[in-house]
């Protein structure tokens, strides 16, 4: 099989390599001349046999929408676009409708595996009709981990279902990461624990909390046992927010995700306005000591 791949960054570049290793011919396009195979989207589409299959792997949002819109007039009846970024599932119906005007199919595919996917394979969650899924199955089989198909690939449902499943996957990931992080902080805080990395490494075999995320935390602690090279600042790329929005819309309680997401928000505040208000209230009703702001916010003397 021969496909086109748009976007050759960390994920896309590794996916191209894995596909080629598994016998799938890939023509890749990226604005970076150092990694691209062709000079333009037009050249990429022209290089493909029919039916043409193009996998889009660019950052979510407007860039993805623009890429799909640019591909639409270049493709036609029986061709297929697979959108594999972390797009919001509500974009998929619009993308599918735009491509359908020319008879081009659309599959959305949530992809999990990060920078380790080239070696380990990618977890894939696809949305679309069965005919389009079948057309792309050689690609999915090449990208997924070795073993039974159902343990690394799911046809999750109609268009939008793949990205919806990946959204919930990432919401779960937020909670798992934060649970490990809280455990790390408590182990570090108690002087009785003299080798925190060793404790986490011991948990990676035979315990109910073992996971690939735990393996990755062990890897990070082996490189930097006190995480001294990092700031306590965590961004979010949107999927946690979207999952929480869906939880509210469907009246599904998700307190773990909410706490993990809000903790990330708190990590970006050098001086929390809400905690300043708490300090002010304690001082007002009980005369409790406060820390006055100094030359830089959040420092100063206790009064």
UniProtKB/TrEMBL annotation:
What InterPro entries does UniProt report for this protein, alphabetically?
Answer: 6-PGluconate_DH-like_C_sf, 6DGDH_YqeC, 6PGD_dom2, 6PGDH_C, 6PGDH_NADP-bd, 6PGdom_BS, HIBADH-related, NAD(P)-bd_dom_sf
Q: Which SMART domains match?
A: 6PGD
Keyword hit for Oxidoreductase: yes
Q: Name one GO biological process term.
A: pentose-phosphate shunt
Q: Which GO terms describe its molecular function?
A: NADP binding; phosphogluconate dehydrogenase (decarboxylating) activity
What are the residue boundaries of the 6-phosphogluconate dehydrogenase C-terminal domain, all occurrences included? 162-301
Is Repeat among the key words of this record? no
Which keywords does UniProt give here? Answer: Gluconate utilization, Oxidoreductase
Catalytic-site annotation from UniProt: 166
Similarity remark: Belongs to the HIBADH-related family. Belongs to the 6-phosphogluconate dehydrogenase family.
- The identity of this protein, by name, is 6-phosphogluconate dehydrogenase
Q: Which organism encodes this protein?
A: Kineococcus xinjiangensis
């Amino acid at each position: 099989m021969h496909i086109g791949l748009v976007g050759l960054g960390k994920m896309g570049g590794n996916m191209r390599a894995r596909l080629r290793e598994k016998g799938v011919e890939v023509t890749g396009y990226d604005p970076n001349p150092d990694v691209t195979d062709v000079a333009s989207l037009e050249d990429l589409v022209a290089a493909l046999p029919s039916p043409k299959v193009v996998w889009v792997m660019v950052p979510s949002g407007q860039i993805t929408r623009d890429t799909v819109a640019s591909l639409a007039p270049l493709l036609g009846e029986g061709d297929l676009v697979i959108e594999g970024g972390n797009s919001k599932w509500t974009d998929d119906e619009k993308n599918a409708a735009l491509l359908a005007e020319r008879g081009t199919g659309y599959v959305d595919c949530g992809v999990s595996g990060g920078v380790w996917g080239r070696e380990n394979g990618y977890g894939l969650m696809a949305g679309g009709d069965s005919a389009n899924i079948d057309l792309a199955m050689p690609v999915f089989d090449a990208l997924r981990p070795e073993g039974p198909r159902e343990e690394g690939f799911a046809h999750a449902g109609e268009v939008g279902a793949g990205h919806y499943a990946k959204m919930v996957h990432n919401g779960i990931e937020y909670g798992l990461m934060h649970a490990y992080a809280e455990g790390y902080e408590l182990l570090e805080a108690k002087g009785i624990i003299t080798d925190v990395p060793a404790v986490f490494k011991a948990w990676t075999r035979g315990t109910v909390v073992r996971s690939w995320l735990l393996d990755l935390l062990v890897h990070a602690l082996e490189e930097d046992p006190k995480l001294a090279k990092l700031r306590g600042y965590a961004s979010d790329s949107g999927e946690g927010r979207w999952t929480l929005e869906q939880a509210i819309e469907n009246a599904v309680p998700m307190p773990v995700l909410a706490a993990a997401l809000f903790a990330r928000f708190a990590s970006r505040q050098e001086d929390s306005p809400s905690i300043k208000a708490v300090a002010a209230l304690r001082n007002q009703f009980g005369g409790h000591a406060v820390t006055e702001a100094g030359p830089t916010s959040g420092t100063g003397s206790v009064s």
